[in-house]
Amino acid sequence: MRVTARRLAAVAALVGALAGGPVHAAAPSAPPASAPAACPPPAVMPTQESMRAGMRDATDHGPLWKATKDGRSVYLYGTMHVARAAWMYPGPTIQRAVLASDVIAVELDLTDPGIQARLQKALVRTPGTPALPEALHKRLLASAAAACVAPDQLATMRPELQAITLELMQGRAFGLYAEYGVDTVLAGLGHGLKKSVRSLETPESQAALLVSDDPAETARAVGDVLDELERGRGPAMLKRLASDWDRGDVDDLAAYASWCGCLDTPEQREDFDKLVRDRNPLMVDRIVQWHGQGQSLFVAVGTLHMVGAIGLPTLLKARGFEVERVSTAEAR
């Protein structure tokens, strides 16, 4: 399975967990001694004071929907797994939706130590992990140096995750960090409010999308990412995706396939189906199940899971929910 730019939006949360954990646990790390002079700054762990200020001053970002059935609501919030520091904090409209819900549902609750342990077990390098051919390994090291990443920062990850991490880190040039992922902060907020916080998926199911025990497949996956790194396609895609999310531009997000430059071949489209399209009905099944148990939900998952004919709002409407877009313009 190929691992290229189209995967970035789907896997940044996993990389954030392996590359230092959620933002409240992340510590700044120095660039390697051989790094370029203009390295982006590392993610900075917020203080309690800055977190309180962030929550107090937060404005709304990203698209929100409300689905209603049998008098109970399901809020659907499209998130960014790589984000700017200010985007971590939910704005007033999002906070109200969280407060109005019994259950906070995310793809994976990365604030749960058990979930983190299972994710690391599924994705960290082990003695049986396929090794890269020497030439490919040298290319990976060169890309790491260019991205201001020391080799020991990647050493515990499987090769596919090492390569994806490097591509994600290109977002730091315009302030996007996996450590500032929106989903993890929302999960932490849910726990702080004594809400039920649940994972829609399992670490094992997500890891299965990203890594392989086949050496040839691992080499192909890493080679694909390095090709994209060397062509510089990833940053432009990330920047546009982040801008669309910030503005809540669901039309351009739904047209992702037409501008990402990443769904041009049958193989690429098959991978996108596995990463997005095929996961959505399973998420909807879980949402409908929990809603049917008499609970209201706040569901926060990557924005590409929300838009278009395959998005969660459309799928819930097909299951008998009344769905409306929630305006956040008055809070901006």
Helix-strand blueprint:
Elements: H1 8-18, H2 48-57, E1 64-69, E2 72-79, H3 92-99, E3 103-106, H4 113-123, H5 134-146, H6 159-169, H7 182-192, E4 196-199, H8 203-207, H9 215-231, H10 233-247, H11 250-254, H12 256-259, H13 266-277, H14 279-292, E5 297-302, H15 312-318, E6 322-326
Parallel strand pairs: 2-5, 3-4, 3-5
Antiparallel strand pairs: 1-2, 1-6
Helix pairs in contact: 1-6, 5-9, 6-9
Task: Quickly describe the structure.
With 332 residues, this protein is of the alpha/beta class. The protein has helices at 8-18, 48-57, 92-99, 113-123, 134-146, 159-169, 182-192, 203-207, 215-231, 233-247, 250-254, 256-259, 266-277, 279-292, 312-318, and strands at 64-69, 72-79, 103-106, 196-199, 297-302, 322-326. It is built from 15 helices and six strands.
Question: What does this protein structure show overall?
Answer:
The protein has helices at residues 8-18, 48-57, 92-99, 113-123, 134-146, 159-169, 182-192, 203-207, 215-231, 233-247, 250-254, 256-259, 266-277, 279-292, 312-318, and strands at residues 64-69, 72-79, 103-106, 196-199, 297-302, 322-326. The chain is an alpha/beta fold and 332 residues long. The chain has a domain at 10-27 and 41-111 and 174-210 and 232-331.
Question: Keyphrases for this structure?
Answer:
alpha/beta, six-stranded mixed β-sheet, globular, disordered N terminus
